[in-house]
Write the structure tokens for this entry.
Amino acid sequence: MKISKSYSRLGTESAFVILSKAQKLVSEGKEIINLGIGQPDFKTPDHIISACKKALDDGHHGYTEPNGVLELRKGVSRYIHKHYKAQVNASRILITPGGKPTIFFTMMLLGEPGYEIIYPEPGFPIYESMINYSGAKPVPMFLKEQNDFSFKADEVLKLIKKNTKLIIINNPQNPTGALIDENEIKKLVQGLKKYPDVCILSDEIYSRQIYDGKKMPTFLNYPEIYERLIVLDGWSKSYAMTGWRLGWSVWPDKLIEKVTRLAINSYSCVPAANQIAALAALEGSDEFINNMMNEFSKRRKLIVNGLNNLKGIKCNNPGGAFYVFPNVINSGLNGEQFSQKCLDEAGVAIVPGTSFGKSCVNYVRFSYANSYENIEKALEKIAKII
Ligand code: PLP
């Protein structure tokens, strides 16, 4: 069988490989603390589960509109208005099975040989993978530890060439947890006025995981770029619903019909009952998110201090998400060696930095989506082996 050339360019997300490895070790009777996977360790709130059960009992078993049921899209529009005071018509919203299809569809629509796409490194591995798959040239925007893994708008603008099609921004950021300042987003939008053909994909999947009382610096606050802005968000991280596969995205008027055609060609629609549960999530109280963030704040302090107390490890204090991306090179091991040793000798699963970009040799990613007690235990175990 001759597999297509484009497939051979496709990458993967190694956090899933690590999850399988960790699960295998657990099934063999080993005690493993998983700080590898990026999903909240909380149960989906009961009122969301009840809404889904009721929807199934009420007979919501069939196909829905491919772009998502109108009530839910209106609900997302109200949510955007409530949180950002932005006006986005329900007609520009697409409901997707998780956030990932938005990345896939963006590349299907915009990526092609002869064009360049700027993406963050370190960054979510699916960006580079999908850019390569589309045939476009991936151009990394390097996020540096000394800048708290943030970027300056000027540096991003300098990367733009005649054939730049798209810039991908992820804020708050995976894998570093960095929260890019509102000012830099504003400057970037200003600077992009000179480049009217360059589109933006803003991945805001961690929009509800922000610390220290700060506000989410969303691109949705800039209507002047709406005709070339795609925003990715969803329920996975905000409401602990990763396995429900529920995402939403906002598209330019010109692209919404085209992207809906991609939905029709791939998954037809998101399960009907899940869409009803998704509306219940948006319309329910924020108590769950507030409690989750109180817990994440405590863990962030624990893990940042704990890692900085280990010899040879340097860890920044991130402003969002639930990841830290420490530099481990002064421990005498690079990121790959360090994460392998953690798994083999301490029974702690983490992800090597190179999973998020070739340049990230000195780093590893810890997810603190695990209990306070487990994080404490993991830190003790790691202290013993380094
Ligand atoms: N974007 C980023 C930056 C992520 O970290 C993830 C998941 O880890 C996604 C998108 C995909 O989210 P979902 O599970 O909703 O597809």
Summary: The mean pLDDT is 96. Residues 135 and 304 are 39 Å apart (CA to CA). The two ends are 47 Å apart (CA to CA).
